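Example S7 (structure tokens).
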């Protein structure tokens, strides 16, 4: 892959990279279409990265519908698909590791120790292999986006990070590869994640600036409308990810709900 992309770089062409773990949905496809519009060449990586899964997480069960993914990529006109094996990406035990600092000590990072260390490791490798001009990441994983932007700054990568708005179903549920694990009843309930965030935005627009009140309203709404476990509702500054008590500046309202077979996250940046 390095030889292929370096050829385009020497020709002065721009390269767009969309990193994915497969099980592609409309959120992924939106990023790819934007990359195709904005770059001479678009590369999509499909790699289920073991380093970002904890010991009790769903690495083995993570959906891998590669053939159907490939058909979607052909239909929208992606130029290259990078689909390495684990052995190709990690031919031996890593003797050097990357540790994410305070940005990974909250929210998903706090619940999943080591997760973002695995994310930045694989993203660094992808940037070195593909050498993209632009790389596309969804705002649905807003903490991941903030960490990758900081990684690019700290390690002096030349790649430009392009954030992409959350793509939602018609009823508001954020599109996710894990939505397939929801039962029919849970799928009906899952719409209330985005509705709870809209409730918080409405209260914010009405002048509410106390985080505990917004968190309480979201939590009470979810308790009334979903059967899943409310894992977290939190408000942080963005992209600094510092906990907010009295809200000032741009904020990130994040929530996580654990259903029977799927842990869903959603967020809104205000």
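Recovered sequence:
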């Amino acid at each position: 892959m390095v030889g292929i992309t370096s050829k385009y770089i020497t020709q002065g062409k721009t390269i767009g990279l969309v990193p994915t773990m497969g099980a592609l949905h409309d959120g992924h496809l939106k990023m790819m279409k934007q990359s195709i519009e904005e770059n001479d060449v678009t590369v999509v990586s499909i790699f289920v990265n073991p380093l970002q899964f904890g010991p009790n997480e769903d690495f083995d069960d993570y959906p891998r519908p590669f053939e159907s993914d490939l058909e979607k990529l052909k239909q929208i006109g992606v130029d290259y698909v990078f689909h390495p094996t684990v052995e190709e990406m990690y031919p031996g035990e890593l003797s050097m590791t990357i540790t994410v600092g305070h940005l990974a000590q909250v929210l998903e990072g706090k619940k999943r120790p080591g997760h973002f260390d695995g994310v930045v490791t694989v993203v660094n490798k992808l940037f070195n292999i593909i050498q993209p001009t632009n790389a596309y990441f969804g705002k649905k994983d807003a903490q991941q986006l903030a960490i990758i932007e900081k990684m690019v700054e700290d390690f002096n990568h030349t790649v430009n990070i392009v954030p992409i708005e959350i793509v939602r179903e018609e009823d508001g549920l954020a599109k996710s590869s894990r939505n397939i694990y929801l039962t029919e009843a849970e799928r009906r309930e899952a719409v209330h994640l985005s509705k709870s965030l809209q409730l918080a935005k409405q209260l914010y627009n009405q002048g509410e600036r106390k985080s505990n009140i917004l968190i309480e309203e979201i939590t009470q709404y979810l308790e009334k409308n979903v059967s899943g476990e409310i894992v977290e509702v939190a408000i942080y500054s963005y992209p600094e990810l510092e906990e907010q008590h009295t809200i000032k500046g741009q904020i990130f309202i994040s929530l996580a709900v654990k259903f029977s077979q799927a842990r869903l996250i959603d967020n809104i940046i205000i």
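Notes on this example. The first helix runs from residue 2 to 10.
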